[in-house]
Amino acid sequence: MELCRYVRSSLRETADHPLWEGKPQRVVGTSKTFKQLARLAGAPPQRKGPFVRRTLSRRDLHGLVARMATMTTDRRAKLQGVARSRAHQILAGAIVADETLYALDVDSIDVSPWALREGVILQHLSAVPDPQNDLPLQVLSPEVHVDKAVVTSLPITESSHDRTR
Asked: What crossing angle do the helices spanning 32-40 and 90-103 adopt, rounded to 10°?
């Protein structure tokens, strides 16, 4: 497929850059395309809520590319989890995702219920204190794994530290 070759050659120039610091422990996909692809691969529907874990394996993704490549846009629009307005682009998104996971040697990704736009908003909100509340919204620190338990902590701010005295 011509698009696959184009994406592969485009990624060849930069795919090794993220690996300079080692193989990632966790990879997260953050887009509506990833959410729809995960749903097509059997992930729980959005109505189950944003905190239900959704993953997408490279193997499942590769199978989706092969399957959708044989379909017309009208047929893709009828797939469970694909919005009609996005049926014309879901195959291209699947190809880019598939080739990217292959280039980065990633077997599986977690699929975020939020996209980049929401991340930018949350990052901004964490930096702007709320004048009505002396405790600004804080970004959670990275997860720490301790004896198979996952611990996520909030950073201590000067104002929250003062309250505990």
From this structure: 90
Predicted confidence (pLDDT) at residue 119 exceeds the cutoff of 60: yes
Token pair of 16 as six digits: 């090794």
pLDDT for the residue numbered 19: 79
* SS3 at position 138: coil
CB under 8 A, 24+ apart: contacts of 159-164: 159/134, 159/135, 160/135
Return the SS3 of 127.
helix
What ranges make up the beta strands (E) of the chain?
28-29, 55-57, 108-111, 144-146, 149-151
CA 102 to chain CA mean position, Å: 16
Query: Can you count the helices (H) and strands (E) in the chain?
Result: 7, 5
Tokens of 4: 């696959």
Tokens of 101: 């996971």
Q: Which tokens in the block code for residue 110?
A: 């977690």
Helix residue ranges, H only, 30-89:
32-40, 58-69, 73-77
Contact indicator for 82, 34 with CB cutoff of 8 Å: no
Per cent of the chain over pLDDT 70 is 77
